[in-house]
Design brief:
The structure holds two protein chains of two kinds. Chain A is built from eight helices and no strands. By secondary structure, chain A is mainly alpha-helical. By secondary structure, chain B is mainly alpha-helical. About 8% of the residues of chain B have low confidence. The chains are: A mainly alpha, B mainly alpha.
Chain lengths: 216, 139
């Protein structure tokens, strides 16, 4: 296998990986995964270490492995579209850069999703002790970004609704507490529930949008 | 009390405030809404502080007081809301009562995580203190 890896031609391998009918398809996939799995693993490791900093969870290696698997699934999805999109096939360095970008973004996205989905289920974020302050800020930023982007042109009270959702989800505000700030004056419980439900839907659907955008 | 003295109290209170003062503003809010003297419910060590907050409220609610200014962007070093008791008094007890527009503030809270946290913490303290006061007054 060492010899095979030495003879690895990026352009050929990428071309074969994107052509299921090719006789070299399986071999190419095998070579590709063997060559880059450690590289992707290191990138994901680094991202997870930054995320958890001083409090890595016990299941950290499981989390990393899951993310690495998801990255490979993404790369080979839809006839390896992500690989087909890469054009500078004469440059190994450029390809590693491309892989690194996808891997890091995917890792970050998965880590954010772990926390957001926990809060979407009304579970208080008990893992917040294991998340670095920098990561909490990133989750906040991510939620704001997504909800602004998916607000729609005619959305009313966009900013107010985002704030309400963040107080409810990230700061564990109850519906009664949400009555206190003057910003939410006049919002009944039913309106609050609607705002929260819609925000959850948008964040849950975000995966689909994100995968499309990640590959552009 | 003259405007200059109140202005000096304002500066002193702002300088002394370390984090949020949800508790004191909750007492003040209760006193204003219920028209009842509430300072006797506070421990003696906290009464002076409460009086300062009350005086600050009077200063901020005078005619011709400057409007609330919200930073347009995310705060760089120090959060705008850090130790900003005057803001919370204006926001909750003065502008809140006038149905003022909160759009610039809301935008800022969504842009600035530091201010978002301070705002959240303030209302948590306020909520807790208000519940305690209500129980105290009932009992």
């Amino acid at each position: 296998m060492k010899t095979e890896l030495c003879e690895f031609d990026l352009a050929d391998v990428l071309k074969s990986c994107t052509d299921r009918s090719s006789s070299a398809f399986e071999r190419a996939c095998f070579l590709f995964i063997n060559k880059y799995k450690n590289y992707i693993y290191k990138i994901v490791c680094k991202r997870c270490s930054l995320w958890y900093q001083d409090w890595p969870p016990a299941e950290m290696s499981e989390i990393i492995n899951d993310i690495v698997n998801d990255i490979f699934l993404l790369l080979f999805k839809r006839n390896a579209r992500a690989l087909a999109q890469f054009k500078a096939t004469n440059s190994e360095a450029a390809f590693r850069g491309y892989l690194a970008t996808i891997s890091d973004r995917m890792a970050l996205r998965k880590l954010q999703k772990k926390v957001i989905h926990a809060s979407l289920k009304d579970i208080y974020i008990t893992k917040e002790r294991t998340i670095s302050p920098d990561a909490k800020w990133q989750i906040f930023d991510y939620i704001v970004q997504v909800l602004r982007m998916r607000a729609g042109k005619n959305g009313r009270h966009i900013e107010r609704n985002i704030l309400l959702f963040n107080l409810y989800t990230l700061e564990d505000y109850t519906r009664d507490m949400l009555q206190l700030p003057p910003i939410f004056c006049g919002m009944g419980h039913r309106v609050v529930d609607n705002v929260i439900c819609r925000a959850r839907e948008k964040l849950t659907k975000e995966d689909e949008y994100y995968m499309r955008e990640l590959l552009h | 009390m003259s405007a200059s003295i109140l202005g000096r109290i304002h500066e002193e209170v702002v300088a002394k405030t370390s984090f949020t003062s949800g508790k004191y503003i909750a007492y003040l809010s209760f006193a204003l809404q219920s028209q009842r003297a509430i300072v006797d419910k506070l421990p003696p060590s906290e009464r002076e502080r409460f009086e300062q907050v009350h005086d600050l409220y009077l200063y901020l609610s005078r005619d011709g007081a400057e409007p609330l200014e919200i930073p347009p962007d995310r705060c760089a070093e120090a959060s705008f809301l850090e130790g900003n008791e005057a803001f919370f008094i204006r926001h909750l007890l003065i502008d809140g009562a006038k149905n003022a527009s909160h759009e610039p503030l809301v935008r800022h809270l969504n842009d600035c995580y530091g201010c978002f946290q301070i705002y959240s913490q303030f209302f948590k303290e306020y909520s807790l203190a208000y519940q305690e006061i209500s129980l105290m007054c009932r009992g």
